[in-house]
Queue: 4 jobs
Job 1
Amino acid sequence: MEENQDIKIIKGFEHVKYSHVQYSQKEMIERSKKFYDWMETRRSVREFSDKPVPKEVIDNILLSASTAPSGAHKQPWTFCVVSNPEIKTKIREAAEKEEYESYTNRMSDEWLDDLKPMATDWKKPFLEIAPYLIIVFKKPFEYDSEGKKRQNYYVSESVGLAAGILITAIHDAGLVTLTHTPSPMNFLQKILERPDNERAFLLLPVGYEAEDVFVPNNRRKGLEEMAFYYD
């Protein structure tokens, strides 16, 4: 039998040969700069249009998110996509209840002062207006075929990486989003009737921006402020 040169057994497990496109140094610099320039245009948006978005776009951005690395390749995430108006209304009502409590009783004066440039408050109409809500759940453990718990590893780190890729894919598709994290978020597990091994991690409204949207003119840290090289 002819040996497959693209498959190798390492410590008893099948591995496949990996190859990746390599670029010249000039092209690497050009590509990395072009990507940065594009990502620099990304902004968190709180005013959405109800213009429909093709479901295939949502499918593709979720598949992109699922390429994230994860502890022991457990992929401890679930993406719930909500477009049903009634469910979106329930989510808005529950989220605004928690947000009102946070803005009036939970947040410190310093926190509220830091939020002032964002011009935001406890009202979250985008939860009903955006065509899609993507709720990212993390899974601390799994159940095997016999119903026994199996631990997942580096769960928050893994799901955070997937969320970052998801946000990037949303921007690359020409759509906008906002990282919404009402606290606590256990109402999402109840409304969506998720199993007991899932915990709400992040809520992302996804769609087009509304007309004439203005966003805070926030300054991002420069390279010299957030990167340190040890040559």
Note: The chain has a mean pLDDT of 95.
Job 2
Amino acid sequence: MACDFKMIHRVDFAHTDMAGIAHFSNYFRYMENTEHAFFRSLGFSIHTRIDGRTYGWPRVHASCDFLQPIRFEEEIEVHLIVRQKRAKSLTYDFVFRRASDPAGTEVARGSLTVVCTEWDAQSGRMRAVDIPEIIARHIEEYPGQVPPASGADQNTQ
């Protein structure tokens, strides 16, 4: 069973402002892309059909704290950690670190809560449902505490 997942992202030019610093909105894209890769690593998609039923994972909470700027061409490791698994929802924590830094300097920390929903094609509506067992059995909560922020001398930007 999986409780965490790591993925490397490169800061693209289109993700930066005039100073070459990644725009804050892209941290949420990096979190979402890492979540999608996590699901693929388990053999699923974030938009899954199981036994004729369509499941999705809309967001009900998203946050991010920015500790240091990241810049064009930098590679960032995003560590997804399953903080909480409930019957109908998952809460992830994300730790962003510079991939090129041997000390693993933390540059941001985020959180995302998603709810498992089933989409009804006839009504066009979604409703919260229990996570299907075929998916739930592959995901578990991270044992213990989420890794602490690295270093006490981080600059908040």
Note: The chain has two helices and nine strands.
Job 3
Amino acid sequence: MQERLNLFLRVQEIFENRGYEISEACVLSNSCFDFFARKGERLLLIKVLRNIDSLTETQAGDIRRIAATLGAAPVVVGERRSGEALHEGVVYLRHGIACVSEETLENALAGEYPALLCYRGGYYASIDGALLKSLREASRLSRPALAKLAGVSAKAIYKYEEGEASATFETALKLEDIFGEPLVKPINIFRVPRAARSAAPPRELMRLRSLGFDVLPVRKAPFSALTKGEGEVLLTKLARCCTREVVERARLLRSISTTVKRRAFILLHSGRAKNISGIAAVTRREVEEIGEAKALLELIEERATQDPGAGG
């Protein structure tokens, strides 16, 4: 536990030293992310793990869903994988999520992206296909002739040139040696993913769908769902009533909301609270009585500006 905490603190320091705004850390057990980091228009969703193999498919699905909806790039920062340390300059994929060492992260934030991808036990590099083709033709080499020099098939050379396949690390080095030019393209680990499949929302959120919102549930996060509609994405938290735990969760939600620049609201089963720790609170009965999405958004905006705890 202490070793992961030390890694977590070092990762936070990396972002702070680079001038990133960081949300409060998520302290939920098995949370799909630890914090958000923003600098200008770049928004990153960060998960810190000592062993990247501990990332579950469920966590990865929520990570992709949240990142895609909020326009964030997800990055897992770790130390090890299946018995060995992560190498600097290498990207490891786990359930489609980029996992890197803290050194690789720090270099990428400075604009020095990693060059290698570790996949199924091997190391691969993405070749600049257009440059490879240009160099081959300038050298008057056919694909079969170049393939023989590089120790691969002519079909492989064709795929490298067309961007249809990555080369092994050894092949990439051979091609660079043949032409005396760098051919490996760096890997941008700060890419926003495509949206992952979403399960049906819980019954308590179905009314939001009938108002025209798209509701994307998440399981291990400080919020219960992402609610999309009227050109907005709202961080949505379900709660039975305004307890001390809900107040604490609302404070974390406010920090995340500020960092990702999205509004948030708490949907209460019962109670009179209108604003909890700076987050608008709306009861299920009020949502049932609202006739359109715009009216709910206006109510959330109004209550977000009220004094915390308003309404008792």
Note: The first strand starts at residue 21 and ends at 22.
Job 4
Amino acid sequence: MENISRAAAEQPPADSGARYYLSYFRSLVFTNLLIYSYTAFCGTLSLLGSIVDGRGHWQHFCARLWSWLILKTSGVRVRVEGLENIRAEGTAIYCSNHASAMDIPILFVYLPVQFRFLAKRSLFHLPFLGWHLRRSGHIAVDRGRPHEALKGFDRAAQRIREGRSVITFPEGTRSRTTEMRSFKRGSFYLAILSGVPIVPITLNGTRHVLKPDTYHVRPGQTEMIIHKPIPTAGLTVDDVDSLSARVRQEILSRRKAPLN
């Protein structure tokens, strides 16, 4: 099974020469312009719908539509494994590695649950994106001020206990190299505080279809692997580091390192 999984997420060598620049040109004049159009259209629909839907369901639908359009336009294919590990009832914290901005559309389309993101507060101040995050019920965390961050985790834990699943990227931000960044402790502190299971997710191939800090969107095969839930019941804050290590190992166990 692991050999099949690795083959499915296999990435081609980096493009070079005329082929590379033609691909980049197509991304700039076609794919990116359509993505900006989708963002404006779906963001506007989301904001208008939030007037009558305070639960965030309409906003989640708009985000899934936006994500589906991006994946189809970009030619990004996704192989999914482990859907049986999704909890039919109850909430969970989903922890994923983060190598590309394309991770977010993949999660919206292929993770079949209502969820919210745990995101840094600065994103909530951006036009359209920030408005959507706020109106959709996504959770802001102030990482720069520890005292405020702790209060934010208390509020987030309360929302999770009330039935709102959350996705976090424990690396904190996208990795700019082919290596997975070290994990921050906040996601695991939140899981223990809220008492819900953590579901690790491994994403492969997303760096190839959209490398960080570039506008080069290109077609390719990606993979999303959903691991078995890891319970947190009975854990205390003293177990944060061991929980983090366990989740990291699960993600790494199926992670295929990018070629470039």
Note: The chain has one domain: 2-253.
